[in-house]
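Practice problem 4.
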């Protein structure tokens, strides 16, 4: 009876984490849409909605602490609860970064658009996919999918470096573009950090499934 109740609470914890992840993914999508379409109303909606993600973070933290205190889980169940706590923190930070994108988007709307947005939406979409796949890996206990997320982080880094070079050339050629180029570089950095948080989630999934901590380790070189 006690074990069944514990299993039900774990299932509910996973459900809350999924809902939080869905909201964080939607924050990314709407932040990118607000930037590209120069929609101030949508940008403010994303900023306002961040509190819902924060509420999930607090609620999941409290649930996890209660599970640890009441059931004193061991082995894999213990890893599941502690991993869920950490994943919630990563998702909360991702939503904060979406809010930051919207703050810069509102500022950018005060001036003409500097350039067509091509690399930034690609970066944002890749970051959102990484978040989704890292959460899918968590739900399915899929370490292979988690490792795929780790590999995809390089693509976001490459896009950011490419964009930084382009923005630097704008600033050198015309100092009047500096404020807009700097804000766009901030947005690129926010998206790169979202991908980093998705990578952190993927590393946590590998720990959950395999019991191995792989963060801060150098991946083996393929032969």
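Answer key:
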């Amino acid at each position: 009876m006690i074990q069944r109740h514990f299993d039900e609470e774990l299932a509910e914890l996973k459900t809350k984490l999924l809902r939080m992840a869905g909201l964080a993914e939607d924050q990314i999508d709407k932040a990118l849409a607000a930037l590209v379409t120069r929609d101030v109303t949508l940008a403010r909606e994303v900023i306002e909605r961040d509190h819902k993600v924060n509420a999930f973070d607090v609620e999941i933290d409290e649930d996890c602490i209660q599970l640890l205190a009441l059931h004193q889980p061991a082995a894999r169940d213990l890893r599941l609860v502690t991993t869920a706590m950490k994943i919630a923190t990563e998702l909360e930070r991702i939503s904060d970064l979406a809010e930051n994108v919207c703050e810069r988007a509102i500022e950018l709307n005060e001036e003409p658009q500097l350039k067509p947005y091509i690399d930034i939406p690609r970066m944002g979409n890749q970051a959102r996919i990484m978040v989704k796949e890292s959460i899918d890996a968590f739900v399915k206990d899929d370490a292979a999918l988690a490792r795929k997320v780790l590999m995809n982080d390089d693509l976001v880094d490459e896009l950011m470096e490419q964009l930084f070079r382009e923005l630097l050339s704008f600033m050198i050629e015309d100092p009047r573009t500096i404020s807009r180029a700097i804000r766009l570089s901030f947005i690129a950095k926010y998206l790169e950090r979202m991908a980093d948080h998705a990578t952190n989630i993927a590393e946590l999934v590998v720990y959950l499934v395999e019991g191995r901590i792989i963060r801060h380790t150098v991946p083996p070189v393929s032969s």
